[in-house]
Specification:
Blueprint: H1 3-19, H2 22-31, H3 35-45, H4 49-85, H5 95-120, H6 125-131
């Protein structure tokens, strides 16, 4: 295994241990809050029942997507662990593993960004700034 590949394996393993679920980690990275925190605060800010229902729907969909992404991530972690246990593994055997982890992270960020923009449609600029202080509408 090349030195850079060893580093990638460690990054993936440590990232998995420290960040936990990829969908949740992406949400925290992109919003600074969990979906539960966003739900609680957004529903406090928004009085309109139709918009509140839409916010609940957006966050429910996001949470469902996060669960699916996390299941996929766990399968990939298990596959990596199985590969690391093998004596006969070759450096090139890790390339598809790295590509799959990259794909999972991209999916997690795409899901979170889609949720962010859908949520933004339900909030005024003022409400958005209240929900995410320091951010721009």
């Amino acid at each position: 295994m090349k030195r850079s590949q060893s580093g990638q394996v460690l990054i993936v393993l440590f990232g998995t241990l420290l960040m936990g679920r990829s969908g949740l980690a992406a949400g925290l990275f992109l919003t600074g809050k969990t979906s539960k925190e966003i739900r609680k605060e957004a529903l406090t800010i928004v009085a309109d029942e139709h918009r509140r229902a839409e916010i609940k729907k957006v966050l429910k969909n996001w949470e469902r997507e996060v669960k699916q992404l996390d299941k996929t991530r766990q399968r990939r972690v298990d596959g990596l662990a199985a590969l690391l246990e093998r004596h006969d593994v070759q450096p090139e055997d890790f390339e598809p593993v790295f590509a799959n982890f990259d794909k999972a992270e991209a999916e997690a960020f795409a899901t979170t960004l889609a949720m962010r923009f859908t949520l933004r449609e339900q909030l005024t600029a003022e409400q958005w700034r209240e929900l995410f202080p320091g951010g721009q509408p």
